[in-house]
Amino acid sequence: MNLTLVCKSDNDLCHILQHNNVTFNRTEAAQEAIEHAPKGSGILILADGYPNTPTPVDLTVMEMARNKNQRIYLEFPSDLPDMEVGDIRGIEWERAVVSSDAFSSLEKLRILMIHGCRFVDVQHANPHIVIARIAGFDHAVYGLPDETCPILFEHNNLLVATTKLSQLQTARYAPAEAWQTIWQWILSYVTGTDQDTLTWDATVRPSLKKNDPLGQDAEEQAIQRGVQWFHDAKLLVHSDWQTEATRRVVEFPDGTGVGPEFDWPTGNGSCGMLEGPSSRIHPDGSQDWRYFLRNDCMGESAMAMAFAHTLTPDLKNKTAASNLNDFIYVHSDFAGGPRGNPKSPSYGLVRWTNHDGDGVYYGDDNARSMLGTMAVSALLNEPRWNEPLLRCLLANLRTTGPQGFRSNRINEADLQENGWQHYWTTDRTNIAPHYECWLWASFLWAYQQTQYQPFLDRSRNALKVTMNAYPDQWKWTNGFQQERARMLLPLSWLVRVDDTAEHRQWLHTIAQDMLKTQDASGAIREELGDSESGQYGAPKTNAAYGTTEAPLIQKNGDPLCDLLYTTNFAFMGLHEAAAVTGDPVLKEAEDRLANFLCRIQVTSDARPELDGAWFRAFDFNRWDYWASNADLGWGAWCVESGWTQGWITSVLALRQLNTSFWDITKNDQIHHHLDKLVG
Predict the structure, then answer these.
(1) What percent of the chain is predicted at pLDDT more than 70?
(2) What are the CA-CA distances from residue 160 to residues 27, 96, 128, 156, 582 (Å)?
């Protein structure tokens, strides 16, 4: 095989060919390559100037190659013979799609991801790959839309890529097996001979393969790496760049943009904590960051750091866990303003983010932040957050109606206008576990601590109404499986405070139904419910892709687990359910899930800001990070610092400590403040 690459030595394809022992020549000048390469040879002219500068093309040199019958692969060209080349364009929600039958094992309409794709605009009638806005998990389920842009096509003796396909390793093109097929075809095309499949190591990949053995300390290592990620990812805001972070949350679209600089110092929690990486990946493999400070994420992450400190004493984790709780309850507006005024209807609540006006209150977010505070207080033996914690519990309780339902969210303006008594006395049902049920878990915990009867009465009744409506009347948010996953925790704790055969049966029913989709790997497969009952279903058209929140799957059966909405909460729920019931089936399911999570934790030398994280999406068949990336804000490759990272590491820590959340927090002393707050 006579093959020449025209590129710099750091090109991904150079490294991959060397790794696969493929012999080739390399030069940085296309004219030199074409002049010196023999007739009929293959030449790949790669895009050193990508993503901003197209590859210079001398049409005279291209004619020389044609006369020598050389087969040329050309990337991101500035010019083409007999074809107009337009401006550079970028993508927003578009993905690549196979649009011909050229690739024998890669069928038409297969979806590919060219992260951060920038391409030159051309017109071609029969491209092999196009860029388009399409819906689907693996395949463009509604076909191609009217507007598509060519990415790979044949033109005279040229094989033209309008973007840089050789950026596949750095830019983390996915899925890997599809790109193996494409590059095998490209090399076969330019050489005129069949080529072997190339292999390479992804720069961001799961820590272990599906069948790799786990070390005895695998869970301990996953905890330490998972918590170290908070620091390495520069999520803890430092005073040196606090003003810049605030500017970015205001000025960046949806508070999301380029991540913290590598030389920025890491904070200690006293200035809060960022939400985490978004799903947008750039050509250099970096991701955008969400600069919001969120009450729930900070409380959950503080919990994880306190657990890590308990297992392996580390002052930076202990300090950050304490400071984050002080930031939430004392040193910020999260619990300040009207929330700090005893005469205000919102007294005791904690706002959702640092950028939501004067206050938005999601009950589930308040609940998870409070659960984090419960754990930090117990683990650090620190009572100073007990009063604001109970104040927040009571504030959420008094905005919960007689049946035990609160609604998806309450806004500060409405609360001020209506008064809290309106919510306490107005009868309502809202059979939406995603939004409601972790508050019930928090109330059951609070009842155990205080014996304040309304905590039990309203949560127990709401659980009864919800279980009587299961499954046909349940409202689901991004998927039905997540609703089951979230119900495990309050049902487990209901058995703790009111152990009846009926309550145990409720827990058994939900756990059994959820575990029907647990894969042999330990993954819990995502499921959608009836489309009429869903808040955010799969896109129903190509145009709908990327316009709202969305599931990671297109249809039931897609081999996907969701670590933002389902798996993380299922892990906590299974742990508490196994602890209260002693059911070996639940314990085995939890163990398998723990092993799975240790295996799929991100490892990366190239992107240290991602090492130790867990992405939202994981395809457990191809054993890679892949999904329908349709969600407007929290797509396949996002990492939620609290929801995902906080709960996975904390449950792994509970396993190491051989205890349950219920037991480790049972000696909290919040009851000392009850008379003052309800009197």
Answers:
(1) 100
(2) 19, 15, 10, 10, 62
563: pLDDT strictly greater than 70? yes
Residue 584, pLDDT > 70, answer yes
Helix (H) or strand (E) holding 218: helix 218-232
Same domain, 152 and 251: no
In a shared domain, residues 187 and 226? no
In a domain, 595, yes or no: yes
Which token pair is 588? 């085995």
- Identify the domain containing residue 533 by its residue range: 218-678
Residue 622 belongs to domain with CATH number: 1.50.10.10
User: Is 213 within the bounds of a domain?
Assistant: no
Q: Render pLDDT for 51-103 as a digit per residue (tens, 0 to 9).
A: 999 999 999 999 999 999 999 999 999 999 999 999 999 999 999 999 999 99
Instruction: Quote the CA–CA distance of 438 and 533 in Å, as a whole number.
Output: 20
User: For residue 626, what are the contacts with CB-CB under 8 A and spacing of at least 6?
Assistant: 113, 174, 175, 560, 617, 618, 619, 636
Strand locations in 67-155 (E): 71-75, 88-90, 95-98, 111-112, 118-120, 129-132, 149-155
Long-range contacts of 190-194 (CB under 8 A, 24+ apart): 190/3, 190/42, 190/43, 190/44, 190/71, 190/72, 190/73, 190/159, 191/1, 191/2, 191/3, 191/41, 191/42, 191/71, 192/40, 192/42, 192/71, 193/1
Cis peptide bond prior to 345, omega within 30° of 0? no
Q: How many domains does the chain have?
A: 2
SS3 577: helix
Strand partners, 88: 120
Q: At what angle do helices 480-497 and 433-450 cross, to 10 degrees?
A: 10
pLDDT in tens, 370-384: 999 999 999 999 999
Q: Is 112 helix (H, G, I), strand (E, B) or coil?
A: strand
* E-strand stretches of 61-128: 71-75, 88-90, 95-98, 111-112, 118-120
The CATH number that applies at residue 186 is 3.40.50
Stretch 557-571: mean pLDDT, rounded? 99
Q: Identify the band that residue 1 occupies on the pLDDT scale cut at 50, 70 and 90.
A: low
Tell me, yes or no, whether 542 lies in a domain: yes
Q: Do the beta carbons of residue 111 and residue 95 sit within 8 Å?
A: yes
The amino acid present at 606, given as its one-letter code, is: A
Element (H, E) at 560: strand 560-562
Q: List CB contacts of 25: < 8 A, sequence separation 6 or more.
A: 3, 4, 5, 33, 37
Identity of the amino acid at 676: K
Give me the residue label for tokens 């990337």: 75
φ, ψ (nearest 5 deg) of residue 579: -65, -40
The runs of H, that is alpha helices, within 120-175 are none
| Paired tokens of 326 | 């002080």
Is there a single domain that holds both residue 184 and residue 243? Answer: no
d(CA 83, CA 81): 6
Statement: residue 345 has pLDDT above 70: yes
Residues 113 and 228 in one domain: no
Structure token pair of residue 536: 């955010």
Q: Is residue 122 part of a domain?
A: yes
Q: What is the mean pLDDT of the chain?
A: 98
For the beta carbon of residue 309, count every other beta carbon within 10 angstroms. Answer: 23
Helix/strand/coil for 584: helix
Shared-domain flag, residues 391 and 535: yes
Q: Where are the beta strands (DSSP E) in 212-251?
A: none
